[in-house]
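Hey Z.,

So I finally got round to the zinc ion thing we talked about over coffee. Here's the setup:
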Amino acid sequence: MTLPATTRFAPSPTGFLHLGHVVSGLYSRIMAGESGRFLIRIEDIDTTRCTPELTAALREDLDWLGLSSDEPVRQQSRHLLQYQAVLDILRERRLLYPCFCTRREIADAATQTAPDGSVVYPGTCRHGASHADREPVWRLDMGRALDVLQQVPGWQELGRGRIAGQADAFGDIVLARRDTGVSYHLCVTHDDALQGVTTVTRGRDLYEATSVQRVLQELMGWPEPVYAHHALIMGADGQKLSKRDGAEGVRALRQEGWTARLVLDHPLVRQALAASFIPADRRPDR
Ligand SMILES: [Zn+2]
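And the result:
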């Protein structure tokens, strides 16, 4: 556990930096340890929601906080061809198929819900489909993928041990979206492998996604990282804090006169970190 780790903080610039980001960034920095590597990656493949202005603002706020990457910041929108190359490999192995269904058609035909709460695709296009007027999404044939792997891969969760994967309960997930041509699961696993990330740190809202991402890692022969999902900032009602309360935005706090040190030490940030797994030798206030 005390081996040097490579961690990453991978925000999507769909808005300004908020305290949830601060928890994630700080947690990743802490989990890298003093001799590890801490990387920042901008996950901006959704170019309609992630604008250059928001990316610049996010990076400026991170600099102000003193959260700096040990290597040049990787920006996903600049590497789309790398993700396309992975899709080509999976397509060649007949692990992907085009799906022409609309959201509505899927909702009407679906009967199951995945562990992350999403609708399980009913498999309508799995054995061949075409549609002259529609662009397809590309789905992973999960049954075939798990046959190839001959297992449902699990993962190592720090502080908890080996977790059983549930990829079979997700069905045929989308790996290439209609609008971006790629997907979150594809880009995140590719980049973690490329950048040598050994410890994937992120919020507990992405815990279930690990099942699916482990399948991609195994299919592509990428190394298996360990995972550490941190607690989320909770509102007074026990629900995940949303952005509706502008007061938690780092920009707003700056304008009110907060220093970077005070923001990093914000009671909500402390509370979330206290509820997360951190090895004793990496606790910041030990
Ligand atoms: Zn379909």
